[in-house]
Design goal:
The protein is of the alpha+beta class. The protein has helices spanning 16-26, 33-39, 88-103, 118-125, 160-163; strands spanning 6-10, 46-51, 54-66, 69-79, 108-114, 130-135, 147-153. The protein has a single domain (6-156), classed as 3-Layer(aba) Sandwich (Aminopeptidase). It has a 7-stranded mixed β-sheet, with helices on both faces.
């Protein structure tokens, strides 16, 4: 079986309704008009995903400058159920990570995941995300209401660079081939 063609496309005034409809189907929460207005302003941080020219997913992010950190927040990343396991989610996460790598100034990228969404948690862990916090009653009108904050850090944790270095007058040991 040949794999389909996966492409990312800009979100514009002309296709924003497709994003709204997709989000209604994929997510258990409703996004307000401000969310969609903001998505139109973020350029590369929001993309529709096409599988063989059909809109099947989307990723929407925003820059978050809090706690003296520059972070990228994944507001939504989702794909229609019948198109899952076709590497569409991987394309979306890689797009986000590429943005972070090219920019070079993000401390981390993070998102919220409902605590019972084991599939999503395992998916993000494959890309190096870790659960860093649990937020009680994060979601309104859905159960469970709690969410994990998953995060992938790009900066060294404090002191790791200095505590792991060893100073010595002798040259480093050479690997011997057997």
């Amino acid at each position: 079986m040949t794999r389909g063609r996966i492409e990312l496309g800009d979100i514009t005034q002309h296709n924003i309704k497709q994003l709204k409809r997709l989000n209604q189907v994929v997510f258990p929460v409703t996004y307000n008009d401000k969310f969609y207005k903001d998505v139109l302003e973020v350029g590369e941080l929001a993309k529709l995903v096409y599988y063989n020219d059909i809109v099947v997913g989307a990723v929407c992010c925003r820059i978050d400058n809090n706690d003296n950190q520059r972070r990228l927040y994944i507001m939504t990343l989702g794909c229609l159920a019948s198109y899952r396991r076709l590497h569409i989610g991987t394309v979306m996460v890689e797009h986000v990570l590429d943005i972070c790598a090219k920019d070079g100034n993000y401390d981390n990228v993070f998102l919220h995941v409902q605590v019972n969404n084991e599939g999503a948690i395992k998916f993000y862990e494959k890309f190096g995300f870790e659960i860093v916090e649990e937020k009680q009653n994060y979601y309104k009108r859905i159960e469970p209401a709690d969410a994990y904050v998953l995060q992938k850090s790009f900066r060294n944790k404090p002191n790791t660079a200095t505590t792991n270095s060893v100073t010595s007058d002798s040259p480093p040991a050479q690997d011997k081939k057997s």
